[in-house]
Design brief:
The structure holds 2 protein chains of 2 kinds.
Chain A (H helix, E strand, L loop, with lengths): L13 H4 L1 H33 L2 E6 L8 H18 L3 E6 L2 H12 L4 H4 L4 E7 L7 H9 L6 E3 L2 H43 L1 H9 L4 H38 L13 H31 L4
Helix pairs in contact in A: 2-7, 2-9, 2-10, 7-10, 9-10
Chain B lengths: L15 E9 L5 E10 L4 E5 L6 H8 L7 E6 L2 E2 L8 H5 L2 E4 L11 H11 L4 H14 L15 H13 L5 E5 L7 H16 L3 E5 L3 H6 L3 E6 L2 E4 L9
Parallel strand pairs in B: 3-8, 3-9, 6-7, 7-8
Antiparallel strand pairs in B: 1-2, 1-4, 4-5, 9-10
The chains are: A alpha+beta, B alpha/beta.
Bound molecules: adenosine-5'-triphosphate (ATP) and magnesium ion (MG).
């Protein structure tokens, strides 16, 4: 019937009554920061995988030929031919001029004028991501026959996206660390308040021969108890929020939008949040009490 | 002088020895000066003196609630100044204290209050309960095991405090004004209780104002005046 005995009247302690709420809030915020960071990290991975080996070859229009359109078409055909002959190339598909125009429609509008514009033609190129070929070698293979050809492996775009995601991850980490620091400070404050409130009881325990670690253990157990309730609430709320995000993300397919996922590492990091919160609560309470008791004779 | 903790010390060695002890609270002036005395095993002393003379302060030094600002205090052969902090609780468990204001924990029942010293010492729960209720019976409170201190009379609280002080079978029992809040009839009964413990070998020191008790129960006295010991009992030192 009796669980672990507690000699201190913690129920009278106003400050520690707020502790579960405080911890719930902190765990919630930290878990969300971790989750968002993990979701972005996993999305970045998806983008990187999707784009690795994918290149766009840009063939400039043959402006000075007598029949410009025909000459351009011939260059495209030749380029596709060269590319398909390369061992690492999985596919090389010319994007039809009309298709290219359609992609431009949002910017220049639909209409006939567009046909007169000397637009470059694009070839969608997929090479074996594990192969040695890169934008440079593709360019080298083409440049002899196709003047001014450009090969874009989206490297810059991916680089910048990854840099952005890394920055967001760094901010999320900083947020989590700050929440941890705030958690430690709150625990120190609440524990010190508890020590002041229960000073008389603590002194009696001390004088009847309780060891410091016995008294610290009582505070620690109480802190762990309070923290467990807060952590549980905060974690459940965070899971519900993440579930909500997944539901929103699972809506109609958006271009370039990967499915939201946390990944194994993300789930592990998320699980570490409540575990860390409990450890911080218990250990901070213990250390704070031990420090305070050392001032008693 | 450096026997390991436990009861296996020379039976003639004093359980308490003060040598030129001085004490101040914080940065204040000395409330105790040049205190020197010995307590042999089985001694019974009244600690007397006017209010403010330092009786409670002297007891606080003995139950290790306070450190001396100078001088040497030896408890059961251990120099309390050099004893490691982890050993102090073991000494405290050998000194039972009845505080002037009892200091019962008002959120605990009488039984749990009495049980406290055993619980903090890690004694098994079945032994704790048996022993605590036995002691409450001994002080005549068998019907009040579950009563909170607030519903007990002053004299009943006092007896709970005494039961708590002796449950560890301490070698030394210190009582600060134990008869302050009770009528003479109960005061005398309490004194018999202390004498009973003393006959079992417990060294007893009782701080009191009660002159009639001091003259009725003939025991050596330690008399304090202005923080100095003027009737130092069987002490080796001399008061200036
Ligand atoms: N916690 C404290 N801080 C500062 N001074 C104190 C403290 N406790 C006691 N004193 C002072 O120490 C001196 C001795 O006090 P103490 O309580 O030891 O006297 P006492 O002999 O027990 O008196 P009483 O018979 O009234 O209980 C007094 O001058 C008192 O004001
Ligand atoms: Mg006093």
């Amino acid at each position: 019937m009796l669980s672990a005995r507690v000699d201190l009247p913690f129920r009278r302690d106003q400050a520690s009554r707020f502790l579960p709420w405080l911890i719930a809030l902190m765990v919630y915020l930290a878990a969300l920061a971790v989750a968002v960071s993990a979701i972005l990290g996993s999305a970045a991975q998806t983008w990187r995988n999707d784009l690795s080996g994918n290149m766009t070859v840009e063939i400039p229009p043959a402006l000075h030929a007598p029949d410009a359109a025909e000459a351009t078409e011939a260059r495209v055909a030749r380029a596709v031919e060269i590319l398909r002959a390369m061992p690492d190339v999985r596919s090389a598909e010319a994007i039809a001029a009309a298709e290219g125009l359609r992609l431009l429609e949002p910017w220049i509008g639909a209409g006939d004028i567009a046909f007169d514009l000397p637009l470059p033609r694009l070839i969608d190129l997929q090479i074996d991501p594990r192969a040695a070929s890169d934008a440079e070698s593709v360019h080298a293979a083409l440049e002899g026959e196709i003047p001014d050809v450009r090969v874009d492996d989206h490297g810059l775009w991916v680089e910048r996206l990854l840099a952005l995601i890394r920055s967001i991850e760094a901010v999320a980490l900083a947020v989590v660390l700050l929440i941890g620091a705030a958690g430690i400070l709150s625990m120190v404050f609440v524990t010190r308040t508890g020590l002041a409130v229960h000073h008389d009881v603590v002194e009696v325990l001390h004088l009847v021969g309780a060891r410091d670690r016995y008294i610290a253990g009582q505070f620690q157990r109480h802190a762990l108890n309070q923290a467990t309730r807060g952590t549980l609430a905060g974690t459940l709320l965070a899971l519900a929020t993440i579930g909500g995000l997944f539901l929103v993300g699972a809506g109609p397919d958006l271009p370039l939008m990967p499915t939201l996922r946390l990944g194994l590492g993300g789930w592990a990091a998320l699980a570490a949040v409540p575990a860390t919160a409990l450890a911080i609560a218990a250990l901070t309470a213990r250390m704070t009490v031990l420090r305070a008791l050392r001032r008693m004779p | 002088m450096t026997t390991p903790h436990g009861n296996e010390m020379d039976s003639t060695e004093p359980v308490v020895r003060f040598e030129n002890v001085g004490m101040r609270y914080g940065a204040g002036t000395e409330v105790l000066s040049d205190i020197s005395f010995d307590l042999e095993p089985g001694a019974f002393r009244f600690l007397v003196g006017p209010s403010g003379a330092g009786k409670s302060s002297l007891l606080r030094l003995m139950y290790l609630a306070q450190r001396p600002s100078r001088g040497l205090i030896t408890l059961f052969g251990h120099d309390t100044a050099t004893l490691p902090r982890t050993e102090m609780p073991l000494l405290r468990r050998r000194v039972g204290v009845v505080f002037q204001d009892f200091r019962l924990l008002d959120h605990l029942s009488a039984l749990d209050n009495v049980a406290l010293p055993l619980r903090v010492a890690g004694v098994s729960e079945s032994q704790v309960r048996a022993h605590a209720s036995e002691l409450l019976e001994w002080v005549g409170l068998a019907d009040h095991l579950d009563a909170r201190p607030e519903v007990l009379s002053g004299g009943e609280q006092q007896r709970v405090a005494i039961a708590r002080a002796v449950i560890n079978r301490p070698n030394v029992l210190l009582a600060d004004e134990p008869t302050g809040n009770v009528d003479d009839r109960i005061a005398v009964r309490l004194m018999y209780l202390f004498e009973e413990l003393n006959k079992l070998g417990t060294t007893v020191v009782i701080a009191t104002h009660n002159q009639s008790l001091v003259s009725r129960f003939r025991h050596d006295i330690l008399m304090l005046q202005d923080g100095r010991l003027i009737v130092p009992g069987r002490t080796r030192g001399t008061a200036a």
